[in-house]
Write a structure and sequence with these properties.
There is one protein chain. This protein is of the alpha/beta class and about 300 residues long. The protein has 13 helices and six strands. Strands 3-2-4-1-5-6 form a six-stranded parallel sheet, sandwiched between helices. Strand 2, helix 2 (about 65-70) and strand 3 form a beta-alpha-beta unit.
């Protein structure tokens, strides 16, 4: 059997349903989300934090114009890379949009591999104190000049508990935790575990699972396609803004290193593939924590998944 669950849990106290399509990069989330949206005659909310930005297209695998035309999408390329946009900002905007959409549709589809952003929408977000706006640029400059190891050392010094569980290869996560530590004088971890979930909808997660080697092959082929589509030129056009937070992401950092003459073009492409595979591994680890999720096998026809589940 390709499915580990065949029914979607419901709560009689709430009639609105948010179906979240999750999975690692290149797992086929877009196809399944569009098929679900058509089945339920509804709309799609994206929670892919790499697809929020207008200036980033090829390297973030934004849905094609044809795909976007099939079903109404929200939160795709709606921000500039120069604008500050936090997970808290995203959550507030999405909850407002969901209240609007649920007036028209009993079911709405959310899709994207950014588990933190999805969790914020479905389960709430821990509240943090205001931070000194000067700290993030300082930490970003340190990262650019001295590398990620200095951020790791700083977090270990200020919050050993969070250091032990955070993705220590993700500069976004390290900088976010450090700016809280440095602004408040308290560990980042001391603010965790106090969130409250929204009360106006049920949420159900559908995770697309793949065998590792098959997924890695899909990732490698996707990167080759991105290169053919002009990823190098897209990154070159953003090079002068390479220190922006939005551009500290796979598919761009590697080209920036190439432009800085750190390595040749072939190495840049291989680094993108390697780092994309690592990112997919971290995503898969995150989604394995979703005990109540419906799990479907990667590569299954979306119509068959829908027929079996609904």
């Amino acid at each position: 059997m390709p499915f580990t669950a065949t029914t979607v849990a419901t709560n009689s106290m709430k009639t609105s349903k948010l179906l979240y399509v999750a999975g690692p990069t290149a797992s086929g989330k877009t196809d399944l989300a569009i098929a679900l949206a058509k089945h339920f005659n509804t709309e799609i909310v994206s929670c892919d934090s790499r697809q929020f930005y207008q200036e980033m297209c090829i390297g973030t695998a934004v849905p094609s114009e044809a795909e976007l035309a099939e079903v109404p999408h929200h939160f795709i390329q709606h921000r500039s890379i120069t604008a500050d946009y936090s997970v808290g900002d995203f959550r507030r905007e999405v909850l407002e949009k969901l209240k609007e959409l649920f007036q028209q549709h009993p079911t709405v589809i959310m899709v994207g591999g950014s588990g933190l952003y999805a969790d914020a929408v479905m389960h709430g977000l821990d509240e943090f104190p205001e931070v000194d706006p000067a700290i993030r640029p300082q930490l970003t400059a340190i990262f650019q000049q001295e590398g990620i190891e200095i951020l790791q050392d700083l977090l270990r010094e200020h919050d050993l508990k969070h250091y032990q569980v955070v993705d220590r290869n993700n500069p976004h996560r390290l900088i976010r935790a450090l700016e809280i530590c440095l602004s408040s004088g308290k560990p980042y971890s001391s603010f965790l575990g106090k969130k409250a979930a929204p009360d106006f909808f049920n949420a159900q997660t559908i995770v697309i699972d793949w065998e590792r080697e098959a997924l890695y092959d899909r990732i490698n082929r996707r990167v080759d396609l991105m290169v053919e589509q002009g990823l190098k030129a897209e990154a070159k056009g953003l090079y002068t803004q390479k220190t922006l937070n939005a551009l500290q992401t796979v598919g761009y950092r590697e080209w920036f290193a190439h432009f800085d003459e750190k390595w040749d073009e072939a190495t840049a492409i291989e680094e993108i593939k390697k780092n994309s595979r690592r990112y997919a591994k971290r995503q898969s680890t995150w989604f394995r924590r979703a005990d109540a999720a419906i799990r479907v096998t990667g590569g299954e026809d979306p119509s068959e998944i829908i027929r079996t589940l609904f």
